[in-house]
Amino acid sequence: MAAPDDFDAWFRLLQTPGLGREGVRRLLAAFGSPEAALAATPAALTELGGPALAATMARPAPECVPRLAAARAWLAGGDDHHVLTLGDAAYPPLLLQTADPPLLLYVQGRPELLAAESVAIVGSRDATPQGLANAREFAQALAEAGFAVISGLAAGIDGAAHEGALAAGGTTLAVVGTGPDRVYPARHKALARRVVAHGAIVSEFDPGTPVLPENFPQRNRIIAGLARGTLVIEAALRSGSLITARLAAEAGREVFALPGSIRSPVARGCHALIKQGAALVESADDVLEALRGSRPAAAPQAPETDADPVLAALGHDPATLDALLARTGWPTAELNARLLELELDGRVDRLPGGLFQRRVAA
């Protein structure tokens, strides 16, 4: 978990107008830490990104101070209020392997559960009674098998999935598109309290962030990134659940879809996923069999030495961040920074599925 000073630096960097997550990663690759990036001279910033970057870093957001105060107040609001940064050893490893891992996560509940074996269950907000029953049944069975159930706390399938996991006495994680202090929809406040008691609510959005439609597609990448697999139960053809499924597939994770009636609008998204290669499932056993058969193998031995220790550990085959951490023994933040630097230098490529590969010279 981030220390107060570390958190302040991460927060201030992320609040810099016009910088964005990619801009922050570029600064981290160049300077190694948020503190060093914030302390960088205009000359160093100009050398890295030109006068525009130096000007951007010289203009802190006026609302940063009250927002930081609100975030600190939330963190002080309970022993179960936590924040994880990209550099924390406790940062969930599966999420770290994705193409766009959040740089900062607010967690209310038990942050260690973000690294648990988990399955995401998502679907329509306007679910049918049968869809809701299916979500509860699948979630309960998966929780009884020892998997944490991840969803988005939304109406419909999401809420039913959380309820099914709780009914089994299992663990459930709710990744929300608001600040960690907001519950949407409001009728899920009691459910949210139960989720916190038996798992965690997770958000990358600062405390006080209201319901904004553009935030929900962003949170979907976190749902997909935390889970070993994503199960879609009822979804229209234009659905946020299909975004989650696509992101899961791009991260190299399993994607499952429950078929329905050919006359049902909320079955069409699932049928489209199946046509695109998602596994058709009829029971929780189908999901469990696929997940148990896809457990990652042990990391291979480190290759022979090379001039750069990270390139040496990478070798000439794609490798996950977990494998590189094991091979190098480096701290997560330092390894992430070096990989970003190598990527920006054109020496390493980031591949789908959270893999890294040395770029072959033309």
Automatic annotation (TrEMBL):
<protein>
    <submittedName>
        <fullName>DNA-protecting protein DprA</fullName>
    </submittedName>
</protein>
<dbReference type="InterPro" id="IPR036388">
    <property type="entry name" value="WH-like_DNA-bd_sf"/>
</dbReference>
<feature type="domain" description="DprA winged helix">
    <location>
        <begin position="296"/>
        <end position="354"/>
    </location>
</feature>
<dbReference type="Pfam" id="PF17782">
    <property type="entry name" value="WHD_DprA"/>
</dbReference>
<dbReference type="Pfam" id="PF21102">
    <property type="entry name" value="DprA_N"/>
</dbReference>
<dbReference type="InterPro" id="IPR041614">
    <property type="entry name" value="DprA_WH"/>
</dbReference>
<feature type="domain" description="Smf/DprA SLOG">
    <location>
        <begin position="83"/>
        <end position="291"/>
    </location>
</feature>
<dbReference type="Pfam" id="PF02481">
    <property type="entry name" value="DNA_processg_A"/>
</dbReference>
<dbReference type="InterPro" id="IPR057666">
    <property type="entry name" value="DrpA_SLOG"/>
</dbReference>
<dbReference type="InterPro" id="IPR003488">
    <property type="entry name" value="DprA"/>
</dbReference>
<comment type="similarity">
    <text>Belongs to the DprA/Smf family.</text>
</comment>
